[in-house]
Amino acid sequence: MLITPRSAASCTTSTLAARKRIALVAHDHCKGFLLDWAERHKAALSQHNLCATGTTGQLLSKRLELPIESMISGPLGGDQQVGAHIAEQKIDMLVFFWDPFEPQPHDPDIKALLRVAAVWNIPVASNECTADYLLSSPLMNQPHQHRIPDYNAYLKGRV
Ligand SMILES: O=C(CO)COP(=O)(O)O
Predict the structure, then answer these.
(1) CATH number, residue 96
(2) Is the Cβ atom of 83 under 6 angstroms away from ligand 1?
(3) For binding substrate, which residues are annotated in this chain's numbering (predicted)?
(4) Residue 148: inside a domain
(5) How far is the CA of 40 from the centre of ligand 1 (A)?
(6) How far is ligand 1, taken at its centre, from the CA of residue 13, in Å?
(7) 109 part of the active site
(8) In a domain, 90, yes or no
(9) What is the ipTM of this complex?
(10) Fewest C-beta in 10 Å: which of 89, 96, 105, 149?
C-alpha cells in the first residue's frame, strides 16, 4: 500500500539562503559543550547570522566575539521567541543542546520549540555530534530548497 504523507497537499517549498540564520540554545549543564563547540567552529559560524536565547547568547558573544542577537532567557520566554521566529521563517537552523538529565521549569516551551522546528522542517541539532554533522554539510553554504507548510493553502482550507 502506498502511504501518502498526510500533509502532502498543503506543502510548498522555500529556499534556505547560503548565509543561514542560526539559533543557538543550551541548557545550563550543556552550555560548556555548546561554547566549546561554537569556538571550534567559529570560522564556519562567522559565515552565518547568529542568534541565541538570553544567557546562552551573552556567554557566546563573550567567548566568540561575534555579533549574536540575544533574545529573552529561555525560562522567561526565550524558547517561545525562537519558536516564533522559526514560524515566521526568520530562523533557518536550530542548534539546541537540551539537557536529557535535568527537568526544566519551562518544559512545555522546550517541547513547543522542538515541535515548531519540526513543523517548519528546519535542520535541528540537539547534541554536539549532530551539530558537527550539520556544520560539515555542503548544504550549509549553499541555497537549499526545503519543504514547508503551505500556509495560504492551509488557511484557504479553513475559511
Ligand atoms: O532555557 C533555555 C532553553 O530552553 C536556554 O535559555 P538561556 O540561554 O537563557 O539559559
Answers:
(1) 3.40.50.1380
(2) no
(3) 27, 31, 53-56, 73-74, 106
(4) no
(5) 21
(6) 30
(7) no
(8) yes
(9) 0.99
(10) 105
